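G., the chain you wanted modeled:
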Amino acid sequence: MAPRTIKSSSLREVAILTQNENSKYEIYSYRWVVLILFMFVGAMTQIIWITFAPIMNEVASYYNVNSDTILLLAASFMIIYIPVNFPASWLIEKNGLKWGTGIGVILTGVFGFLRAFTGSNFILLMLCQVMVAVGQPFVLNSFTKLAVNWFPQEEKVTATGLGTMALFIGIIIAMFVTYPLYSLYGIEFVLLVYGIFSLISMLLYLLLVKDKPRKPPNEYIRDETVQSKPFKELFKNRDFNLLLVLLFCGLGIFNALLSAIDDIFIRFSPDSGIIGGLVLIGGIFGAFLLSSLSDKLGKRKIFLNLALIISVPLSLLLEFSDIFILTLILAFAFGFILVPALPVGLTYGAEITYPISEEISNGILMMFGQLGGIILLIMPDMILFAFVFGIAAIISLLMKDSDAYPRKSVHSVEA
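Predicted structure as tokens:
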């Protein structure tokens, strides 16, 4: 039988169909510029949050108040996050990534800068601090939306992980830089330096950040043809409800641990802050390496399982270790394995609830983590934390991985 001939017109039709399919998704190198600017702003929110922690007694004396009052400057961030969370998520969905998040960026830049001009007036300082705290949910609730808007499927957790890493870098900078600056130049200079960088982060964001690329980088990004569902639909998803419990436990423990690090490790005082620093440094490495591995393997659940299971013995070892060097090693390992669970969990939540807005799922998950931190601060104890991790680990085994949920095929080309 003679081979069948294909008309040239048919070949052209096939070529056009293939080209259209391949160009449906496109990756833009500008995504890294957008991510870096988000990281800059995210780090500044954390620097402003924790500014006074390393110099609490000195600041209390300067403002003529007690140390508990100074503690409110940091506590306001966790407290305010809860009522502002839903309006922030709604405004990000309504106004898009750039201008929805931009509300928080402007609040951070303007009031972070104005702190430097409050003088010795504690009320004005608290007002500026509260306004930055109002802006924080707009920034923190947007990392998964940023990843969905700009990054391909195989880089989404990496992008969210780098965003999370920036938050810890901000805390570390504040912990290590604030006291030296204060001891040399005073509190006004500290606030001025941080204020200038806050203003710079705002200006760069407003000038350079774009809402989304011309073509979507993955199948999850929504356009006018894909409508978001109401947020109440989230709670009809069994795995999302289980994920809420995991974030309540895992992120709650992390927040409580850092907030009460001196009480938990009082046996190592005044070096207990170094333990918290090692948790954060370990978290930075873990957020980068394990998030990248999650993207490479296309798996989410296994990383949540391992983080919670391994955190049980690590918590107990941290409780009973009396050797400082060993405790530092354990603290690094604790941060390395636990912190990546946050970007993985946020990405998992966005994937299993699509097409519900990423900022909605992100915001609710972060809010539960804040609630967990407030409740667990009532009795911060590593043995209790180990017990809570154990419960969360069992719950995590009941979840399905995100690849069990239906999704479209992805085609992308580097631009």
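Residues 1-21, 223-227, 408-415 have pLDDT under 50 and may be disordered.

Shout if anything looks off.
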